[in-house]
Amino acid sequence: MRKLLVGVLASAILFSGVANAHQPVVLLDSDTTAASGPLLVDGTVSFAVRAAFTKAGQKKAFRAQFKEGDALAVQYLIVDKKPENALRNTSLPTLVITDPAGSKVTMKFNERTKFYEPWGKVNYLYLGRYSAEAKSGIYSFLITSKSKSAITIGVGEKEGVVGEVVRGSTEAAKPVASSTPKATATPKAEPAGYTMEKVKSNNSKGSCWSVINGYVYDLTKWISSHPGGEGAIISLCGKDGTNEFVAQHKGQGKAEARLSGYVLGLLAK
Length: 269
What we know:
- This protein is mainly β.
- The longest helix is centred in the last third of the chain and has 8 residues.
- A hairpin with a 4-residue loop joins strand 9 and strand 10.
- It has five helices and 18 strands.
- It folds into two domains: about 170 residues, Jelly Rolls; about 70 residues, Flavocytochrome B2, Chain A, domain 1 (Roll), CATH 3.10.120.
- Helices cover about 10% and strands about 35% of the residues.
- Strands 1-13-3-5-11-7-8 form a seven-stranded mixed beta sheet, with no helix packed on it. It has a six-stranded mixed beta sheet with strand order 2-4-12-6-10-9, covered by helices on one side. Strands 14, 15, 16, 17 and 18 form a five-stranded mixed beta sheet that branches.
């Protein structure tokens, strides 16, 4: 089983005209069923689950755990630029939410509300929102494509806390003990976040950390696969690379989604 702890990206208020900025989780091509997909250990913590599809009929899925009476809050979003915003609702992936008792709800598209997400500097559209009082247990989320597309599913409203994502057996996931989640430490985690001193010490091709928009990223694995060459990433190692990243990739959803997969956590002040 592999656990990933990632920091919350930004703070905003849901349903007030200002959108939540959720911590990212990118679904893999192997996440074809809820059982094989990631588990959000506390579904009340804000997460942005991103799914990209290359053709119709593809499936990606994930799970989220809740306690009885928790707020179940789900949002369906797309980037407000072509090709995503040019797709008709009938061409967008379906989202089916299954509760622990087996009851299913299909997300309805009933809005196209614009908002600007300041952390990623991306314009989005809300297409639908669903809220209910949660039952105790694990909810499943199944996304099925109808065409080439990319979407984001927002889950949870709780900002300012560390969320935990588990890949592997659900039996190994500990039940949520309270409505206020406690961070589970990993070898890399620091109680107060990731310090700039620590970032500066990871300044090589073998271990490359960088700060972008106030969050620390381990870019080591991106170096060899970066389309623009290794040098562009190596130049960010051990420093605040915000200006360089924004200059090259501002508004580029694909690059920002890729970056989100390397987040370690919030930079300690």
